[in-house]
């Protein structure tokens, strides 16, 4: 006996039909996810599966931060549906930053934090990034230098400035996240920043700031007088 399907719902209650008639903004999180998932399982409709995922991860941000393996571990999801979800969430993150990369300068720590927060605040490992700027403080590119516990052995000046030299970057902004949610820097964070700042001065590529992303909070070493 087959399980419930969305087609069994009245037309006005089906997510796709509701989106076409009322617009995407009128749909709930679970309805939007059901459209991405497309199909359910033998005993769950796509809408039921979407609700199950939201309940399992407790919130949409937690779900967006889940890995492929974590999603696949949920009954009824499988690799294909997990990949569809990951792709949808990644597009959302990129959309939040697309306009900034095209025309808006990164002229303050608040703007840097706003740019990075969607990408970094839910990660469960530290990611160290460099933002490459032109002479007008517009973003040329963003490079991931290391993933894991932040220390000098993982973040070497050679790796930090290699891409900067190749792209003729006028300046850099350093950034990383604290999975604990507390953005205050460790002594290792401060030491590494000073080391990279000295290297940048020698190369003529100044380090403008080091922004640490926490949970809805950030720490700017420039604002705090540490750089």
Automatic annotation (TrEMBL):
A molecular function (GO) term: metal ion binding
Domain of life, per lineage: Bacteria
Keywords tagged on the record: Hydrolase, Metal-binding, Metalloprotease, Protease, Zinc
Gene3D superfamilies cross-referenced by the UniProt entry: 5' to 3' exonuclease, C-terminal subdomain (1.10.150.20), Cytidine Deaminase, domain 2 (3.40.140.10)
InterPro entries in the record: MPN, RadC_JAB, RuvA_2-like, UPF0758, UPF0758_CS, UPF0758_N
MPN domain boundaries: 105-227
Keyword match Kinase: no
GO BP of this protein: proteolysis
Keyword set includes Manganese: no
Family recorded in the similarity comment: Belongs to the UPF0758 family.
NCBIfam families referenced in this protein's UniProt entry, alphabetically: PRK00024.1, radc
Protein name: DNA repair protein RadC
